[in-house]
C-alpha cells in the first residue's frame, strides 16, 4: 500500500491513460484518459493520451482497467469516538481506500454520540489528521440517540454534519419524528432513517420463515420494516421533509417506495451490498458473520432488490460497514452481535451482479458514487471537468479468494470470508492525491 503522496504529486499534472472511463452520471463508457491538475479533473476522454501530454506530467498507464469516480458510502461505523477497539478512523479509511471508497459517511452511534457540534468538530479534525479518505459526519436526530429530545439540527449542520440519523435504531415516537421532519425541512437537512418496528423485532435474529423455523431461531417479519416505512412516508407527505430510507430489504418496502416516488415525495432509499449479493441460505450452519440488521432475506427478495436497483428505484448501495470483534461474534447465533465489515469488499461484491448480467457496470457505479453525491449535495461522484479528482482504477475481472487476514479493518467479520471474488482496486485518488496504489 502507498499512503498519500507528497504535496508535489497533487500539484504536478497527473494523467491516467489507456483506461476504460465510466461516467456514472450519464451511465456511459469510453476509452481514454483523465488529466488531473491541482486536485481537480481538467480533461477526460479519448484526447487524453500519453503522446499528447506535457513531458513533466506524471503518467499512469491503466492497461485497459476501469477508471471511475470514487465510491461514496452512506452508511459506515468508524469507531471514533469511544469504540476504537472495533475500528478507528485510520483503519476504516485504509480499508475504504483499498476498496475504492473515497468518501465515508460516519454513523452517529458513537460514544459519545454525534449529537453536539463539538463532537462533529472532533470527528472532522480526527479525519483530517488520521484519515486517508474523506469522512463526513452524520449527526443524531435526537439527543443521546434516545428518541425523545430533538438534536440541534441547525447548529449541527452548520458545524459540518451532512445528514441526520439515529443510526441503526428506529425512532418509535411518531410525534417526535413529525417535529424532527418539520425542523429539518426548514434547514433543508436530509433525514436518514433506519425503518424497523422495534416491537416486532425484539427477539428476532434472522428472517422469519421456513429456514428460521428449521434452524430453531426466532424470526424478524418483513412487515416490521414496511410498517415503520409507511409511517415515515405519511409524515414526509405531511411535512415535505427530505427523507432517505437507509436500508430496505423487502418487496413490501419496494412497493411503498415506488408509490411514494410516483406521488412526487422527496424520498430516496438505499440497500446494503449484503442484501444484494447474499440471501438467508448463506447463513448455512449458523454463520454469525452473516447475522445482520435487517436480516438477510429469501432469494426472491434479493432478486427483487437487484431488479429495483437496475430500474433506478433503489438509489444507493451502502457497505453497512459494522465491525464487531471476536468476543461479540464467536457466540451462538442468537447471542452474537449483528453486523459485518464491508468497506473493502463493497465493489467486488457488487461486481458479482455485473458478471451475472443482472446490472450494468455504469448503473452499479452510479448507485455507489454519483447518486449518493446528488442526494447529499456533494461535488464528488462525477466524471466532469472541474469536479474533485476523487478517482479509482480497478480491474473488474481479476479473480481472487478473499483472505480476511489481508483486510485493513481492525475487525475481520466479513460475510465473504474465503469467498471467490472478482474485481481488484489498483489505485485510489482523493483530491488528486494517491492514497492507495496496489504494489
From TrEMBL:
InterPro entries: DHOase (IPR004722), DHOase/Allantoinase_Hydrolase (IPR050138), DHOase_cat (IPR024403), Metal-dep_hydrolase_composite (IPR011059), Metal_Hydrolase (IPR032466). GO terms for biological process: purine nucleobase catabolic process; pyrimidine nucleotide biosynthetic process. It holds the Pfam family DHOase. Gene3D superfamilies: Metal-dependent hydrolases, Urease, subunit C, domain 1. One of its GO terms (molecular function) is allantoinase activity. Residues 64-250 form the Dihydroorotase catalytic domain. This is Dihydroorotase. It comes from Methylovirgula ligni.
Amino acid at each position: 500500500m502507498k499512503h498519500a503522496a507528497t504535496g508535489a504529486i497533487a500539484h504536478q499534472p497527473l494523467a491516467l491513460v489507456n483506461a476504460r472511463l465510466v461516467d456514472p452520471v450519464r451511465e456511459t463508457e469510453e476509452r481514454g484518459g483523465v488529466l488531473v491538475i491541482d486536485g481537480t479533473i481538467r480533461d477526460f476522454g479519448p484526447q487524453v493520451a500519453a503522446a499528447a501530454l506535457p513531458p513533466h506530467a506524471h503518467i499512469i498507464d491503466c492497461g485497459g482497467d476501469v477508471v471511475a469516480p470514487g465510491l461514496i458510502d452512506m452508511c459506515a461505523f468508524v469507531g471514533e469516538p469511544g469504540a476504537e477497539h472495533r475500528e478507528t478512523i485510520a483503519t476504516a479509511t485504509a480499508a475504504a481506500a483499498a476498496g475504492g471508497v473515497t468518501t465515508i459517511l460516519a454513523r452517529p452511534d458513537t460514544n459519545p454520540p454525534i449529537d453536539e457540534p463539538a463532537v462533529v468538530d472532533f470527528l472532522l479534525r480526527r479525519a483530517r489528521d488520521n484519515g486517508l479518505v474523506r469522512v463526513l459526519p452524520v449527526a443524531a436526530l435526537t439527543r443521546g440517540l434516545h428518541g425523545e429530545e430533538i438534536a440541534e439540527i441547525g447548529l449541527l449542520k452548520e458545524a459540518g454534519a451532512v445528514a441526520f440519523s439515529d443510526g441503526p435504531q428506529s425512532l418509535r415516537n411518531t410525534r417526535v419524528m413529525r417535529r424532527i421532519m418539520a425542523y429539518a425541512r426548514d434547514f433543508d437537512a436530509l433525514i436518514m432513517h433506519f425503518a424497523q418496528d422495534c416491537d416486532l423485532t425484539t427477539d428476532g435474529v434472522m428472517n422469519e420463515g421456513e429456514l428460521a423455523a428449521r434452524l430453531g431461531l426466532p424470526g424478524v417479519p418483513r412487515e416490521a420494516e414496511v410498517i415503520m416505512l409507511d409511517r415515515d412516508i405519511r409524515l414526509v407527505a405531511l411535512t415535505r421533509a427530505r427523507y432517505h430510507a437507509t436500508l430496505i430489504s423487502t418487496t413490501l418496502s419496494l412497493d411503498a417506495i415506488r408509490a411514494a416516488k410516483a406521488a412526487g415525495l422527496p424520498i430516496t432509499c438505499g440497500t446494503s451490498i449484503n442484501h444484494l449479493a447474499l440471501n438467508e441460505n448463506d447463513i448455512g450452519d449458523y454463520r454469525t458473520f452473516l447475522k445482520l440488521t435487517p436480516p438477510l432475506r429469501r432469494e426472491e427478495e434479493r432478486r427483487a432488490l437487484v431488479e429495483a436497483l437496475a430500474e433506478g428505484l433503489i438509489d444507493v448501495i451502502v457497505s453497512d460497514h459494522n465491525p464487531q470483534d471476536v468476543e461479540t461474534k464467536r457466540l451462538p447465533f442468537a447471542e452474537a452481535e449483528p453486523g459485518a465489515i464491508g468497506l473493502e469488499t463493497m465493489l467486488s461484491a457488487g461486481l458479482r451482479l455485473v458478471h451475472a448480467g443482472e446490472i450494468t457496470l455504469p448503473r452499479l457505479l452510479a448507485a455507489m458514487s454519483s447518486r449518493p453525491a446528488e442526494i447529499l449535495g456533494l461535488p464528488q461522484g462525477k466524471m466532469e471537468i472541474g469536479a474533485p479528482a476523487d478517482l479509482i482504477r480497478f480491474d473488474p475481472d481479476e479473480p481472487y479468494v478473499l483472505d480476511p487476514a489481508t483486510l485493513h479493518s481492525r475487525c475481520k467479520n466479513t460475510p465473504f470470508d474465503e469467498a471467490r471474488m472478482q474485481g481488484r482496486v489498483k489505485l485510489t485518488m482523493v483530491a488528486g492525491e494517491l492514497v492507495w496504489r496496489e504494489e
